[in-house]
Amino acid sequence: MSKPEVSNPSAVLYVVSTPIGNLDDLSLRAIDVLRQVGRIAAEDTRHSRRLLQHHGIDTPMLALHEHNELQAMHGILGMLREGMPLALISDAGTPLISDPGFPLIRACREQGIRVSPVPGPSALIAALSVSGLPVDAFCFHGFLPRTSAARKRKLAELQAAAGTQVFYESSHRILYALQDMLEVLGGEREICVARELTKQYEEVMQGKLQEVVASVAADSMRQRGEFVIVVAANTARAEDGLSMESRRILGLLLQELPVKQAAALTAKITGEKKNRLYQFALGKR
């Protein structure tokens, strides 16, 4: 369905990625955009002022955060409709990735206002790039639930999930979250915990879950800062020699297909031996 179009070509909202730690990670294009727009919508204007001052940017800011998002959005849309270009930034990284801004972007799209990305830093991608874990397929879940019971339920749902799983976590809950992961996922699961990326005390801890949990628990310094947790897919194999992921896929296909066809298709997807899958499927039927 076609969307209304705003005739003024200067009506554009730039979604600008900002550094996750090191202030010099702001791109040259981002600096130019932030200098040229009429206003900068920032999650925390006091926090962002340090970044703007570091790069000699004096563009006026306005606040857009989780507590005033809907109210501030109307004023921002009004300025955009009048032809003023604006930029949206978060406290760190790429806006909307576990940060405010989604309602504004949706409203701009619905009203025909152009939205343009200015890509750059992202803690999610930075952590994946140094994790040493497979990154050909991954799923980002944002922050885990605050309570232990809810966290364990979420982790149980993902216990046999395909691909690498990525989470953000705060210093207040990092140890509790890792301990819940240890209980639900098991100590042999490969994991990477990236702490304070691009900052002075940057640290990347990679190994088996039981080893990483012990290391974090033993050092209070490793419980401080901002964290990205990267968890490998479950590659453990049951006594029948099949991986948990192969068993999961086969189980899903058996709901719709005959045994022989389900086994053959699972073999193509996973690389498992077709005969082994077929024998396992016969046992399930």
CATH architecture of the largest domain: 3-Layer(aba) Sandwich
State the name of the first-level CATH class of the largest domain: Alpha Beta
CATH homologous superfamily annotation of the largest domain: Tetrapyrrole methylase, N-terminal domain
Radius of gyration: 23 Å
Tally of strands: 10
Widest sheet: strand ordering: 3-2-4-1-5
Through-space gap between termini:
46 Å
Low-pLDDT segments, ≥5 res: none
How many helical stretches?
11
The average pLDDT score comes to 91
Number of discrete domains:
3
Order of helices and strands: EHEHEHEHEHEHEHEEHEHHH
The secondary-structure class comes to alpha/beta
In the CATH hierarchy, the third-tier topology of the largest domain is known as Cobalt-precorrin-4 Transmethylase, domain 1
Q: Name the beta content range.
A: 15-25%
Main beta-sheet strand count, sense and barrel state = 5 strands, parallel
Coarse morphology: globular
Secondary structure: helix percent: 40-55%
Fold and architecture overview:
Helix 3 packs parallel to helix 4 and helix 10 (259-270) crosses helix 11. The protein is globular. Strand 2 (39-42), helix 2 and strand 3 form a beta-alpha-beta unit. A five-stranded parallel sheet has the order 3-2-4-1-5, sandwiched between helices. Strands 6-7-10-8-9 form a five-stranded mixed sheet. 40% of the residues lie in helices and 18% in strands. The protein contains eleven helices and ten strands. It folds into three domains: 12-121, Tetrapyrrole methylase, N-terminal domain (Cobalt-precorrin-4 Transmethylase, domain 1, 3-Layer(aba) Sandwich), CATH 3.40.1010; 124-231, 2-Layer Sandwich (Methyltransferase, Cobalt-precorrin-4 Transmethylase, Domain 2); 244-284. The longest helix has 13 residues, at 69-81. The mean pLDDT is 91. With 285 residues, it is an alpha/beta fold. It has helices spanning 28-36, 45-54, 69-81, 102-110, 123-130, 148-157, 174-185, 209-218, 244-254, 259-270, 274-284, and strands at residues 12-16, 39-42, 61-63, 86-89, 114-118, 138-143, 164-169, 190-195, 203-208, 227-231.
